[in-house]
Design a protein that fits this description.
about 160 residues, mainly alpha, 5 helices, 2 strands, elongated
């Protein structure tokens, strides 16, 4: 393995701690890696690419159990390609739903920013529109939002 990475090099190359690398190996997310005669781990470029893909799954909200299931399917080889594709398609759908929820929440935040800017202008007398700004319910698709905060949480 001429391009092998030590655990420290792998950690630096991926932004994952050495502790996490050991944990991922123990949890079955990373296959058993090659070792030197002294027992030090040696990671290949393929190991690095796989770990970076796992980090994408993690960053997009896939739980460890889902990552483990995917890793197990991968370890079983080409016979599981269909299952892996279906698993990733389902995860993609979940990520798209999260993105839509974030967009909806961002629209609501943007509306509040506009509201507070107008309120500030009213309070300082710099508002060109003499009509009083009133706090009204957000007009974004609130019916699709999952309740995440209440007035008591300081959402006004």
């Amino acid at each position: 393995m001429s391009n092998a990475l030590t655990i420290g090099q792998m950690a630096a190359a991926t932004g994952v701690s050495t502790h996490t690398l050991r944990y991922y190996e123990q949890a079955g997310l990373i296959r058993a890696v090659a070792r030197t005669e002294a027992g030090h781990r040696l990671y290949s470029g393929a190991d690095r690419d796989w770990l970076l893909f796992l980090m994408r799954l993690k960053a997009t909200g896939m739980p460890i159990a889902g990552m483990q299931a995917f890793a197990e399917l991968r370890a079983r080889g080409d016979a599981t390609v269909h299952e892996r594709r279906e698993m990733l398609a389902a995860h993609r759908d979940a990520v798209l739903a999260q993105i839509e929820q974030l967009r909806t929440n961002l629209e609501a935040i943007d509306e509040k920013i506009v509201y507070y800017a107008a309120l500030e202008a009213d309070m300082t007398g710099t508002n060109d529109n003499p009509q009083t700004v009133k706090d009204s319910p957000w007009k974004t698709r609130m019916h699709t939002l999952k309740p995440t905060a209440t007035h008591e949480d300081g959402t006004s």
